């Protein structure tokens, strides 16, 4: 009598977890680490990956599951060393707003104010211009040699890490994600997996329900201070057209509150004033902003930069942060950070 071949441990684990999650149970942080280690090592089938992602999406991902998955994604990333006090300004995307590139512009303003920004991003997925698209349109080489990215971060206070270059393990989930065609846990994981593993972060999320949970996740991942934000007009940024909800991780706990443009001494705007276009249109607007152009785009960038400066310990409140951010633009420091980044990333190694 032939003995059945043993089922590989990874497949057995996936079957067991799929059964549990399909029945409405959640995974512990350790279980999520184990499962996503299997997935991101290429040891799960496309059907298993798709089934798990949809089961989690329908039931709702938990803080423990997101944290465990993020730990694996961070562990498998190609790292970049960041200077002390570095911050990331990154959003989940997926808000479908079609605005100008706000967090990318804010990154140059914050860098000009003397705070290192380890910017983690990608090309557009749900918008016309992702961070990588607008940076490329500005003349930055987004796939520059890693040594040049590090140099720009250390010597110029801003470096851009193109997500696919640092997260090779994501190739194992690319097919199921495309075929599902809907948001999954990986939309939440991207901003949690900065290759520089900064201890400070501004994270924008596409829905208010994720503001507090994502702040808790950041705390579990070892972040020292963070603001997780969502504009009540739908933006994954602090917005100037409506109040924004914020959950701050600081001193080992989450504190949640609302902010408005007036808190930073800024005017309310209309959504139409923030509508952008493709990468070339947004790049032209960003250049004009750094050249000193006033208006709604400048105000929303100042608002988001002010929050980053608070998290970085450079400002006590939004009003002070907005003043420091305005100075970074008006004295040319933010524009200089852009120009130096262009020069560094296009240099031959």
Question: Any overview of this molecule?
Answer:
The chain is an alpha/beta fold. Helices cover 47% and strands 12% of the residues. The protein is built from 15 helices and seven strands. It has helices at 9-22, 29-40, 46-59, 63-75, 102-112, 131-137, 146-156, 163-166, 171-180, 185-189, 211-220, 279-290, 296-311, 318-330, 333-345, and strands at residues 87-91, 117-121, 158-162, 200-204, 225-231, 244-250, 253-259. The strands form two sheets. It has a five-stranded mixed sheet with strand order 1-4-5-6-7, sandwiched between helices. α11 (211-220) links the parallel β4 and β5 (225-231). α1 (9-22) runs parallel beside α3 (46-59) and α13 packs across α14 (318-330). The radius of gyration is 20 Å and the shape is globular. InterPro entries: Anthranilate_Pribosyl_Tfrase (IPR005940), Glycosyl_Trfase_fam3 (IPR000312), Glycosyl_Trfase_fam3_N_dom (IPR017459), Glycosyl_Trfase_fam3_N_dom_sf (IPR036320), Nuc_phospho_transferase (IPR035902).
């Amino acid at each position: 009598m032939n003995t059945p071949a043993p089922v590989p441990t990874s497949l057995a684990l996936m079957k067991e977890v799929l059964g549990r999650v399909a029945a409405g149970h959640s995974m512990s942080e350790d279980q999520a680490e184990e499962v996503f280690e299997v997935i991101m090592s290429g040891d799960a089938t496309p059907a298993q990956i798709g089934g798990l992602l949809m089961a989690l999406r329908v039931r709702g991902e938990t803080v423990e599951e997101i944290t465990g998955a993020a730990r694996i994604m961070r562990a498998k990333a190609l790292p970049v060393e960041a200077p002390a006090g570095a911050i990331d300004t990154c959003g989940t995307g997926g808000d479908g707003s079609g605005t100008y590139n706000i967090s990318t512009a804010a990154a140059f303003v914050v860098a000009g104010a003397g705070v290192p920004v380890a910017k983690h991003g990608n090309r557009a997925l749900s918008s016309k211009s992702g961070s990588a698209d607008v940076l490329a349109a500005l003349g930055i080489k987004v796939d520059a040699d890693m040594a040049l990215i590090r140099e720009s971060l250390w010597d110029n206070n801003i470096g851009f890490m193109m997500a696919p270059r640092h997260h090779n393990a994501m190739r194992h989930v690319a097919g199921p994600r495309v075929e599902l065609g809907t948001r999954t846990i990986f939309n939440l994981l991207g901003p949690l997996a900065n290759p520089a593993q900064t201890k400070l972060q501004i994270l924008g999320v596409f829905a208010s329900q994720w503001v507090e949970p994502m702040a808790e996740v950041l705390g579990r991942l070892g972040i020292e201070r963070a603001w997780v934000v969502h504009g009540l007009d739908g933006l994954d940024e602090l917005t100037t057209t409506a109040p924004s909800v914020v959950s701050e991780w600081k001193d080992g706990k989450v504190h949640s509150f609302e902010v408005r443009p007036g808190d930073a001494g800024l005017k309310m705007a209309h959504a139409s004033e923030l509508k952008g276009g493709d990468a070339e249109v947004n790049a032209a607007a960003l250049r004009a902003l750094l050249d000193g152009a006033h208006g709604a785009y400048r105000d929303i960038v100042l608002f988001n930069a002010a929050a980053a400066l608070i998290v970085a310990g450079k400002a006590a409140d939004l009003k002070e942060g907005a003043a420091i951010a305005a100075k970074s633009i008006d004295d040319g420091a933010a524009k200089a950070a852009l120009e130096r980044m262009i020069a560094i990333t296009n240099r031959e190694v």
